[in-house]
Prior knowledge:
By secondary structure, this protein is of the alpha+beta class. It has a single domain (about 5-265), classed as Metallo-beta-lactamase, Chain A, CATH 3.60.15. It is about 20% helix and about 30% strand. It has helices at about 25, 45-50, 95-105, 120-125, 220-230, 250-265, and strands spanning about 5, 40, 50-55, 60-65, 75-80, 85, 105-110, 135, 150-155, 155-160, 165-170, 175-180, 190, 200, 205, 210, 215, 235-240, 245. A hairpin with a 2-residue loop joins β5 (about 75-80) and β6 (about 85). The relative contact order is 0.13. The model has no long low-confidence stretch (mean pLDDT about 95).
Amino acid sequence: MSLFSCFQCGAQFPEAAAPPRRCPICEDVRQFVGWDGQKWLSREELAATHRVAWRDDLGIDGIGIEPSFAIGQRALLLRESDGCVMWDCVPLATEAAIAHVRSLGGLKAIAISHPHYYGALADWSAAFGNAPVYLHEADSAWITRPHPAIVSWSGDSMSLSGDILLLRAGGHFPGGTMLHWRAGVGGRGALLSGDIATVTMDRRFVSFMYSYPNYIPLNAGAVRDIAAVVAPLQFDRIYGAWWDRNIANGAKSAFDASVERYLSAIA
């Protein structure tokens, strides 16, 4: 019996004698099955060929997979006095990486923006005493490895601490979530957007898509809804979903300009 992860998206599935026949996340129009067909790696195979690496990403501790695997996102660790909140997740949890996170204060919670980044959420939660994993209930159909630590939250927002707020923005997925860290950037605030609002390659704007690999844009109404969620927030920096894909300063103005640019382009 093994735990298998999808080679294309990194989602982990329940323990079984053989890999699943299909990955519903990759068969969905927002993702894709690899050109050479559906492929799987057991947890042991993934650990033998990849490692979890960690480094600072513009002032926040981050962890990612080397060499890059599946979608290639990195997770961020927001440190508070009673432990870290892991934002988004990666497909592998190794002993060395777990020890590193423990040295930062351990995990008190995990929060994930959308199903493409669920990764090995159950392994990370279990390593820290079944730390709660916050996933919006609107995306519950996409959970590939159910686990008792999963908290299906509902509504438009959920506070994880006095400084950390989850916000349902929708768009890319119905439960698409962003995180506002009020204490981030020396108190100027940070928005952790995953790819609900993805930081563009010039790192001056964000953009919005229903499907990134299949180039399906998001409609104007959905973009306006995301903008309305972000409007009351104060933040000077945006952290995207990959290493160094961040807007370092002036991010609130950059976000507002991005919305106007996007709406103008699709008008």
